[in-house]
Amino acid sequence: MKRAAGLILAFALLAAAADETRQDRGKRVLNEAVEALGGNAFLHMEDRIETGRMYSFYREQISGFSNAIIYTRYVAPKPGKVGILEREIFGKKQDEGSLLFTEDGAWDLTFHGARPFDDKRWNNYQDSTRRNIFYILRQRLNEPGLSLYSQGSDMYERMPVEIVDITDADGVTVTVYFDKTTKLPIRQTSRRRNPEFKDWDTEVSIYGKFRDVGGGVKWPYDIKRERNGEKVYEMYSESVEVNKSVKDNIFTIPANLKILPKPK
Prior knowledge:
Blueprint: H1 2-19, H2 22-37, H3 40-43, E1 47-58, E2 61-74, E3 84-90, E4 98-101, E5 106-110, E6 113-116, H4 119-131, H5 133-140, E7 147-156, E8 159-167, E9 173-179, E10 185-194, E11 199-212, E12 218-227, E13 230-242
Antiparallel strand pairs: 1-2, 1-13, 2-3, 3-4, 4-5, 5-6, 7-8, 8-9, 9-10, 10-11, 11-12, 12-13
């Protein structure tokens, strides 16, 4: 009787799996990722402070390095804008300048003043933010026109993964690899049109060393980015904290800084 019951259960599970569409499987994988990142605690995360070492690369060689503190606050997305505020402050003593990103623009802040990003740099920032899997999971899951399609299971660096294509209403697709054991996102890829060379850039982000950063939220301490097979950015966090009630002045241009002209 027990064996018969076990067989019936196994057949029922197989039937359920067979009935699961590619779209259903994709939705399930993303829902599991949200739960793995902290569930409601992740979805209601208000702000985050990351402290660590930031590297930039050009042709596989280090072109820049700085100790950095990154402040992030989530806000309700408005049409055509990203729902996030961010400030990156550089230097051990936080005295090597900073970058400020708001819903309406971005500025390079130095002792000379606040210089707005040029249009290309600002548009690239917005586009990259909207493609980021953590931003998608936190801010875009209920967005009209967002579709999910499972590519099924595969292996990535000897780890079993679930692969899901996420496509928005504008036809932009991000392919994300989720660790099948932890359910966490560990890699994402997307293609972006290169207006200068009229071809496509393939951009890859890799996430590792997930840790509990407070209140049940998990966040990656290691973040790497590549473009067309060459690494362009690495961030190694030494600490990450969430829901610290970051003050409003972090996300505003200091009153004593003059506004400089936008680069041409």
